[in-house]
């Protein structure tokens, strides 16, 4: 009974602390120190008088204290990104390895945050820790930002008494994964933007420029070449149906995204088709294998049992196809099959990966072999992305030339024909 009463009291204290934090207001202050030097900063308090009192207690003379203005759209545009979590992971790992107490480390990291949502999340985690929660329990309050894999690794580190080492491993893992994702996005962003601009310019030409030329040709009584007639017909179609085309395009994109998120079969179909795209499919496949190997290596090294590790790894590959394959691997391993045998049965892992895994299992160095596989395929992804960028540049030029250049040539053909008859 006493234990239950104490636990209830602890929960109430944590709730009270969180409520008090949520009632605090952020103030910006300017003060003079003992040497007359102007100092600036921010402080959370219930009112401005308490801020001034705290500044005087620290030996400063307050000049101005005002409530910090809120962004025009609140916290919009300040979503917590995976890169923010990667940076936080490295910060907390560095501080823990340096011997900084956990609560103090959170204070330091929170003080340097510019993102309001990130700051509030770290404050909530720190409050939970102060209330007696372990780090993995506090992180569990924010499952979107800290997935099951992250929490399991932290839990394993806490249980083994090597939290600082595990946090360093997690930080390196996050940085590597984000580097791969960033590399792929960067390679695809440029051609996507160029093609988008080319299509936009083509639409502008069809809607606004071609009709002007069409009227000139009618006034001159010119006999239009077949290619020019095709461009004029395309212009008429776009002008008459531009609203419908925009609605269909936007609706198609929204419907595809929703279907991908809600329909498992559709997600499988899109994922399988993506893996079959020349060059890009190979990059996605290599990226999934690299993320699988590194994630499994990290969890296994942290002391997480293999079956549990595979359960957490399934959602970390970035591929629905590979995620389902890893779930099947987990089921096979759970009934006693070797990891390398279960991997071979899926037909998705190259022979080199299977052989490296087999050597790791036999030698008792599975994590080391998985890290070697991850490093190899991460390098392969980097090389493939560089190759893709090189291949796409001339292809983009050809597409732009066909879209825009072809349209310009088609518009000037009647003019050349008229000039030849004069």
Write the element-wise H/E pattern from the N-terminal end onward: HEEHEHHHHHHHHHHHHHH
Q: Proportion of β residues?
A: 5-15%
Tell me about the biggest sheet? Answer: 3 strands, antiparallel
Structural class by helix and strand composition: mainly alpha
Number of strand elements:
3
N-end to C-end Cα span:
107 Å
- CATH H-level superfamily title of the largest domain: Type II secretion system (T2SS), domain F
Overall domain count: 2
Q: Runs with pLDDT <50, length 5+?
A: 1-15, 17-22, 73-77
Cross-sheet strand order for the largest sheet = 2-1-3
| Shape field | flat
Mean pLDDT: 80
CATH topology of the largest domain: Receptor-associated Protein
Identify the CATH class of the largest domain. Answer: Mainly Alpha
User: What is the helix tally?
Assistant: 16
User: What gyration radius follows from the Cα positions, in whole Å?
Assistant: 30 Å
Pfam family, one: T2SSF
Family: Belongs to the GSP F family.
Organism: Mizugakiibacter sediminis
Keywords: Cell inner membrane, Cell membrane, Membrane, Transmembrane, Transmembrane helix, Transport
Structure overview:
- The protein is mainly α.
- The protein folds into two domains: 82-175, Type II secretion system (T2SS), domain F (Receptor-associated Protein); 176-421, Up-down Bundle (Receptor-associated Protein), CATH 1.20.81.
- It has helices at residues 2-23, 48-57, 82-97, 102-111, 116-130, 135-139, 148-160, 163-220, 226-262, 264-275, 280-301, 306-313, 320-334, 339-346, 351-363, 366-421; strands at residues 25-32, 38-45, 61-67.
- It has a three-stranded antiparallel β-sheet, with helices on one face.
- Helix 8 (163-220) packs parallel to helix 16 and helix 13 packs across helix 14.
- The protein is flat.
- Residues 1-15, 17-22 and 73-77 have low confidence and may be disordered.
